[in-house]
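One-letter codes give the sequence; the integers encode the fold. A sample entry reads:
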Amino acid sequence: MKKLREIEDYWNQRARGFSLSVVEELEDDKKDQWLQLFKKYGMTERKLKVLDVGTGSGFFAVLLAQEGHDVTGIDYTPNMLKHAEETARKFNVKLDLRQMDAQNLEFEDESFDLIVTRNLMWNLEFPEKAYREWIRVLKKGGKIINFDGNYYLHLHDDVYKEGYEKIEYVPDRQGHTKNNIDNVDFSIMREIARELPMSSIRRPQWDVNTLVAMGVNSVSVDLSQGRKFAAMDQENNEIYLTSAFMICAEK
């Protein structure tokens, strides 16, 4: 886990600002759009045992707890968990929050009905291991809903770099600046991301192939959360690339 401490340190610095962002999201009507996606892809009317991997300041965890589900949120960053506790108290919901590495889960096999995660996998040193762990702790028939993006692919992929220069879709050129109240240097994460595996892999193609190889029963992709743009490959063929996406896999 060479980069784990560096990643933890960065997000510890960003936690206070992200907490403000999460509170804004939970007080905004746009949260209903997230609920509709969950209802479409994985959330049922019965009470579910949910794992929010990389819960951060607790947006998904609080949102799903408000719907009556039994939610466990994990994060490796202590400051994020502290703010998640504050968010849970503010919105009067009960969460089981634990410090844990998303790539090495401390749960029994088949413990959860639903696993949700947002903007986490691109941070990981061993994303394939993470998927294996998530599948392991998921009950038969359960679902993984993973929202993520190609946030730093422009550092390695010339086609994506061209798109990066045309549209603003990466974290340090989006709304993250608004809530960077502690003036954390974004270049720290950029240099960490440069060495992380997901920064050089086109997704969600990789996710689909990886999950299929791991034996899931179904995989679906939703590209409506990100921006799509046309680019030309090395053979001068037009291809479409995306900034962000959702993967839903059923075990």
Notes: Residues 97 and 241 are 36 Å apart (CA to CA).
